[in-house]
Amino acid sequence: MNIPAEYQSQLGAYTAAQTAPQLKRFLENGGTVLAVGRSAMNLADILGLPVDNHLVERSPDGTSRPLPSEKFYVPGSVLRVAVDNTSPIAHGVSNPLDVFFDNSPVFRLEPEAALKGIKPVAWFDSATPLRSGWAYGQGYLQGGVAVVDVAVGKGSLFLFGPEITFRAQPHGTFKFLFNGIYLAARAGAVAGTDSAR
Questions:
Q1: How many of the other CB atoms lie within 10 Å of CB of 132?
Q2: How far is Cα 182 from Cα 165, in angstroms, rounded to an integer?
Q3: Distance, C-alpha 134 to centroid of its chain
Q4: Listed residue (99, 87, 88) closest to 125, CA to CA
Q5: CA 142 to centroid of chain Cα atoms
Q6: What are phi and psi of 119, to 5 degrees?
Q7: Interval 141-194: pLDDT, tens
Q8: Among residues 89, 77, 72, which one has the least CA distance to residue 162?
Q9: Sequence-ordered list of residues with C-beta below 8 angstroms from that of 100, at least 6 positions apart, any chain
Q10: Hey, is 9 helix, strand or coil?
Q11: H-only helix segments in the chain
């Protein structure tokens, strides 16, 4: 990788040990984080949230493992999700909504999730969500959560499994991104007002 000299000081590596505490502190102090795709599942894991992978198979001894590609494979298709558009992050989003899905993460909320301020915003409410493309094993999606709203201290974390901004194509899901930017700006303005009092 050839990085110009003036930008080399900004180049860094993400590590759970160093970066996660900074993100958590940012969130707890009122920050907003939008995580899309695999980063969403990784962030939920390193923050210790009661959010797990929905796309797993369980063995008789109770252990689980991710579904193998012989059972589940959706390499870039349009799928339909149900949306709670009363959630601020989903303001103006249609219900149902078509999303771009490229072997994206699908979340399973643990029983204690609601007690910790974790709410589903969009989910697969059908065993046949395929709208365009192909989806091998699409029935495994049913009941999985696609978008999650997490309260972390004074801040907000939004986890998006589907690629909501993929190549600037999914116009229906751009509102999630823009709503997130708006909510972050609004929270910053409110925090600034509160600190000025």
A1: 12
A2: 16
A3: 22
A4: 99
A5: 17
A6: -130, 140
A7: 999 999 999 999 999 999 999 999 877 566 788 899 999 999 998 876 555 444
A8: 77
A9: 76, 77, 78, 162, 163, 164, 166, 169, 170, 173
A10: helix
A11: 16-28, 38-46, 174-196
Q: Are strands 155-160 and 32-36 parallel, antiparallel or unpaired?
A: parallel
| pTM, two decimal places | 0.86
Asked whether 30 and 153 are in contact (CB, 8 A), the reply is: yes
- Side chain identity, residue 41: M
In 3D space, the residue among 124, 120, 35 whose CA is nearest the CA of residue 85 turns out to be: 120
The number of residues in the chain equals 197
Give the C-alpha distances (Å, rounded to integers) separating 75 from 30, 43, 121, 189: 36, 23, 23, 40
Helix axes 38-46, 16-28, angle to 10 degrees: 80
Give the whole-angstrom CA distance, residue 120 versus residue 78. 20
Is there a contact between 24 and 152 (Cβ–Cβ < 8 Å)?
Answer: yes
By three-state DSSP, how is residue 62 classified?
Answer: coil
List the one residue out of 135, 143, 149, 50 whose CA is nearest residue 93: 149
- Asked if the bond preceding 170 is cis, omega within 30° of 0, the reply is no
Rounded to a whole number of angstroms, the CA Rg of the chain reads 18
